[in-house]
């Protein structure tokens, strides 16, 4: 019987996440932020929401660049790491669920841009839950505000999936098993200290696969407009078969704009 993964995202983004994804460093974040700012074309001191900010690499880079940044994440442990990296309090760190942002003036139509990076989307079983996330992005954006959603390219991911990998980080063995099942990319992760056979920590990750057409329809349903899709952070055009990423850039319409004009 197929194992059901229940709310994996509440369990997988703790302290071991910092070890498993240590290869995502600050320099890489700086390069990605530079490219994102080219795409968003925002003036300095604009308000940016990093939705699912994790340990805060991009949020902090944006803040150091001169933007006013709020970072939201469900993981208290990752936010603790983010705050520790932000001794001057440059970023407003908020613990919260991306499906239900706070209902106050701090979030409603507050932001000039919302970013959601590294496939921090598609976590949920049902399409309507992902649509709820997009509607929360719409609510958080000022009219005319911009968004970036950095998602995996479903066809490329399916054709280039690595079934198994193992590496050692600081004396810890990290084994990752990947497969496609029922429209999801499933990843099982085992973390074990070298020389120890007794203590193995296990995590699951599951992300739903979406075509660009389906995502474009969902964005439209949420009141958002997709302007362009990039295939990577070098700014190459999206190619369904060749692009590793599907980086969607778009906007919320200004008030009074006729979308059908």
TrEMBL record:
GO aspect biological process, one term: methylation
Pfam families in alphabetical order: Methyltransf_25
InterPro entries: Methyltransf_25, Methyltransf_Superfamily, SAM-dependent_MTases_sf
One Gene Ontology MF term: methyltransferase activity
Record keywords, A-Z: Methyltransferase, Transferase
Superkingdom, natural source: Bacteria
Methyltransferase domain location: 48-145
Gene3D superfamilies: S-adenosyl-L-methionine-dependent methyltransferases, Vaccinia Virus protein VP39
Protein name: SAM-dependent methyltransferase
Species of provenance: Paenibacillus ihbetae
């Amino acid at each position: 019987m197929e194992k059901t993964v229940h709310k994996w995202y509440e369990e997988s983004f703790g302290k071991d996440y910092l070890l498993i994804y240590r290869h995502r460093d600050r320099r890489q974040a700086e390069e990605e932020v530079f490219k994102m700012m080219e795409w968003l074309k925002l003036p300095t001191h604009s308000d940016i929401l990093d939705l699912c900010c994790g340990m805060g690499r991009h949020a902090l880079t944006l803040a150091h660049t001169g933007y006013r940044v709020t970072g939201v994440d469900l993981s208290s442990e990752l936010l603790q790491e983010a705050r520790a990296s932000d001794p001057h309090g440059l970023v407003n760190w908020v613990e919260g669920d991306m499906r239900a942002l706070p209902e106050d003036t701090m979030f409603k139509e507050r932001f000039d841009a919302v970013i959601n990076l590294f496939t921090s989307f598609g976590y949920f079983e049902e399409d309507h839950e992902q649509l709820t996330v997009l509607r929360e992005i719409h609510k958080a954006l000022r009219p005319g505000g911009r968004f970036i959603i950095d998602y995996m390219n479903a066809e490329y991911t399916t054709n280039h999936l690595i079934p198994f990998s193992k590496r050692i980080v600081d004396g810890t063995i990290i084994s990752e098993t990947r497969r496609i099942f029922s429209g999801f990319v499933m990843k099982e992760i085992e973390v074990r200290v070298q020389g120890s056979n007794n203590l193995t920590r296990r995590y699951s990750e599951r992300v739903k696969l979406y075509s660009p057409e389906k995502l474009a329809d969902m964005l439209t349903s949420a009141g958002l407009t997709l302007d362009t899709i990039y295939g990577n952070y070098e700014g190459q055009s999206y190619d369904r078969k060749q692009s590793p990423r599907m980086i969607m850039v778009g906007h919320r319409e200004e008030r009074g704009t006729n979308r059908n004009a």
